[in-house]
Amino acid sequence: MENAIFDTLNDRQREAVLCTEGPLLILAGAGAGKTRVLTHRIAYLIDELGVPPYEIMAITFTNKAAEEMKSRVRSMVDFGESVWVATFHSSCVKILRRYIDRLGYDQDFVIYDTDDGKAVVRQALKALDLDPKMFKERAMLSLISAWKNEMISPEEALSDAGFDYRKEKEARIYASYERLLRKNNALDFDDLLLKTVELFRKEKDVLSYYQNRFRYIMVDEYQDTNTVQFELVYLLAKAHRNICVVGDDDQSIYRFRGADIRNILEFEEKFPGAKVVKLEQNYRSTTSILDAANAVIRHNRGRKEKHLWSENGTGAAVEFREYGSGNEEAEEIIRKVARETKLRGRSFKEFAVLYRTNAQSRLFEERCIAMNIPYRLVGGVNFYQRAEIKDLLAYLRTVATGRDDVAVRRIINVPKRGIGDTTVEKLQLYAAEHGISLMDAIGKAGEVPGVSRALPKLQVFAHLIGELREEAKTRPFDDLIRLVIEKTGYYGTLTELEKEKAEDKKENLQELIAKAKDFEVNWEDPEPPCLTDFLEEVALVADVDSMSEDDDRMLLMTLHSSKGLEFPTVFLAGLEEGLFPSYMSIDSGDPMDIEEERRLCYVGITRAMKELYISSARSRVLRGDLVYNNVSRFVRELPDSVWSEEIKEPRGFSNRFASRGSDDFSRKFNKFSVEKPEPAKPREKPAFGLSFEIKKADALDYGIGDRVNHQRFGEGVVKEILDGAKDYEVVIDFDDYGEKHLFASFAKLVKI
DNA sequence: GGTTGGAAACTTTTT
DNA sequence: GTTTCCAACC
Q1: Please, how many CA atoms are within 13 Å of residue A533, restricted to the half-sphere of its CB?
Q2: CA distances from A83 to A70, A221, A245 (A)
Q3: Interval A153-187: pLDDT, tens
Q4: Is A402 left (phi over 0), alpha (psi -120 to 50) or beta?
Q5: Is the entire prediction scored with pTM above 0.85?
Q6: Residues whose beta carbon sits under 7 Å from strand C
Q7: Nearest nucleotide relative to A366: CA against C1'
Q8: Neighbouring residues of A568: CB distance < 8 A, sequence distance ≥ 6
């Protein structure tokens, strides 16, 4: 190959790039340059094989990944913008906007998020006269989602239920939920995929159009695909079989969302004759960090054997610290960031704190504010899920379609205009009886039985929406949003809240206005965008997507959000039994749940480029009350060699003995228990280093003069053995590292 | 019939 | 800590 850009690839990467025909599975370890492989592969197809760019499809999971790939492809090849690079969900939306009429929907369908979905479940329960306490919204939604991911229809769910009362009711709720969505001309997240598959199965001409259109298909993060997604890819690829999937089974962390790890483990069976390329050289992290990652993930059973390695050098040792409390953990971590940035001139964005649950973020946020550290909180409540934003968007949805009952219900009394639940129920009933939408029923409120007192208020509301619809025809979106705020007197409701919160909400609304403007300015199609386009964009963005690289702030996020990102210094916080791994996964009794948590830990470790600090807290406040957790099992799975820097420091070492008795260790490493040990002293200085269970051996199986092997230092000769109170101290002269003093129980020396 | 404030109950992770 | 529920008020 003459092209210089391909010279920067290693042999395995090049192999993956050159294998363009037929099914290909790229098993890419963390930081092994999979995005580079994908983009180079696209460039190779276009530049070397002359494939037209529009015949190439690359599917990702997040918008951020899609954006990154888009910009890389554009900078590498001419007409790069013609390559179809999009997320699963937005790809499906694009297809459905063109052809969904074949499934009996209008093309301007709206997309419901989980909040809307909850409202629909509530309505379904009411329609079926079922007790909402018996069938929880959230549980029902995840059940429905699971059914959809498995492509099980309401009818099938019903027949599967047999004579089980509960299952039968659940299936009926599902059926009712479906009817309501269809009536509102709405699709939920799962529908986007499911309806596309339905479309392909039903309309052969549509399927073959897209099969011919996408002659080369690439799927990123393949380990996170679920059954519908697999089916979608399978349908598209089965004609030409040029399907390349990239993934890492060790980074599969979305099982709870229906991701099926078997999709990657069984790829070769699903696509016979598939070629497999493993990328194991890591370009991101130091060897210390990779050792830690490898050691932890080794404890999982169902996985493809891999061993990450790098040429980046050993680097700083991974450090573990146990703090007295969650507060102290946050304080020390943020203090460390403050020191590093102030004293060593490092920038804030080099640091990231990763945690298991969103609830943990607050502690770090508070410390950042207190210490004046600029930070960015990723995830938590998604910008577009905030109440005020959703309210405004519900107005826009109502203005845009008029069929969206869920949106109308949300805003009919926001701000308060004296239209209560009873009135809405009557209107809804009337609408159902006459087969019209809620908004239409409001227009005819005079004819609705039982509506008298609320009638003038309803007329005002209907008039308001009518007016906004008129204005929407000419105004740009940002202007329209301003108008909604003004006409509804939305800010009026906010001032009643505490000042600070109201300010926050106003700022959020300003940001929404800015985003709307942005959207219009960046619109690329010659056709001007309509309100539906904007609402669609907004429905499909995640929080990570809007993370910008340029502002210098440290990052706080869950382990899930951190996937695909990298940071010079990572703090993995809250490594405690019950928190991480979560009590849910411990209690379920399914070892697969713990394995998923372990993969999550692996993802967290491999985000780090140069430094990794792992920590836990002995006590922390969880939903109001103080709990005492044991150190996570994952900490114990970390390799001894990782801690050797500490062992070289006698000072840290003696500290460790001074502050921790061995009873403490056995308690800590016991399985998660509810038994509460004595409370931690709040301001106690934390001990450095990892405290392994120190158990003095009765006798050592090596003596002075023997050659022994150490995991990290290699081979050496035992010079001296000192009998200490709690352990033997062994002096070894290593061939490569010289003389070292090690403790027998830590060093795990093996006689050769 | 609608609003409001306080008590109760629930928080794993999210495209 | 935060969202939902209910009962007393308007």
Answers
A1: 13
A2: 8, 19, 17
A3: 999 999 998 888 888 999 999 999 999 999 999 99
A4: left
A5: no
A6: A 118, 132, 362, 381, 623-624
A7: C1
A8: A346, A350, A351, A608, A609, A610, A611
